[in-house]
UniProtKB/TrEMBL annotation:
PANTHER family tied to this protein: TETRASPANIN
Key word Lyase present: no
Official protein name in the record: Tetraspanin
InterPro entries named in the record: Tetraspanin/Peripherin, Tetraspanin_animals, Tetraspanin_CS, Tetraspanin_EC2_sf
Species per Swiss-Prot/TrEMBL record: Sinanodonta woodiana (Chinese pond mussel)
Family according to the record: Belongs to the tetraspanin (TM4SF) family.
Lineage: Eukaryota, Metazoa, Spiralia, Lophotrochozoa, Mollusca
């Protein structure tokens, strides 16, 4: 007869399996969002360090989808092999999540430096053409910013400032409203730099990602505990007495 801990474990495993399906969709979405964001700013960075955690997150999402299927199967069948596989994959995913967090922390300074260097180079070479210039315009419009640290960066030794046509002006993407005069002294342009705005955007998303990661780490630990309980129960069933408690026969 199933005991209360084993029934509870089966219910929890089933719920965790369903949650993992939703989590898989969420993680894959987050990873895809990071790739999409990086693609918009790819010409502004000299390195792809930000893609390392994103790749791990997407991989974890795929694992979680498979894990959800295995978790539900393990809860229904209580097969020792399936439970062991479920436990092992949970452990692998947990290690991968910790690795992603550690990599994000270790490379945080390198990422900041790469972003700032790439942004500086893009602004200095900006001439209003296609490629990286379009991405600078996209960045300034999207984040409502102008220049690297502030709008005056456009006047300090950039290819843009060397042109007589652009003397004392900033790109139109710095304008608060479309087609402004774009003069550095006007109140019609964004004055905040893009570097700090970009940092704030990533940090705000990082808080949500970290909170979700911690929540799922707790779920994974709970799943590992439940799978251990069910594995112990399946071991006990193998040694139940055949023919009743007084038959003396055991297998």
């Amino acid at each position: 007869m199933a005991t209360c801990p084993s029934i509870t474990s089966k219910v929890i495993l089933t719920v965790i399996g369903v949650i993992f399906w939703g989590a898989a969709a969420g993680l894959i979405f987050v990873g895809a969002w990071v790739y999409h964001t990086y693609n918009n700013y790819s010409h502004l960075t000299k390195d792809n360090l930000t893609l390392i955690p994103a790749g791990i997150v997407i991989t974890v999402g795929v694992f979680l989808f498979i894990l959800g299927c295995i978790g539900c199967l393990a809860a229904v069948k209580e097969h020792k092999c399936v439970l062991a596989v479920f436990f092992f994959i949970l452990l692998v995913v947990l290690v991968a999540e910790v690795t992603a967090g550690v990599l994000g922390y270790v490379y945080r300074v390198d990422v900041k430096s790469a972003v700032k260097d790439g942004l500086t180079e893009a602004v200095q070479k900006y001439q209003g053409g296609p490629g990286s210039d379009e991405q600078v315009d996209y960045l300034q419009t999207e984040l409502q910013c102008c220049g690297i640290m502030n709008a005056s960066d456009w006047l300090n030794g950039t290819e843009w400032s060397k042109s007589k046509i652009h003397a004392g002006l900033v790109p139109q993407s710095c304008c608060i409203k479309f087609n402004c005069t774009a003069t550095i002294l006007a109140k019609e342009i964004y004055m905040d730099g893009c570097y700090d705005k970009l940092q704030q955007q990533f940090l705000s998303k990082l808080v949500y990602i970290a909170s979700i990661a911690i929540a799922f780490a707790v779920l994974q630990l709970l799943g590992m505990i439940c799978s251990c309980i069910l594995m112990c129960r399946s071991q006990e069933i193998r040694y139940e007495t055949l023919g009743g408690p007084n038959s003396g026969l055991r297998v």
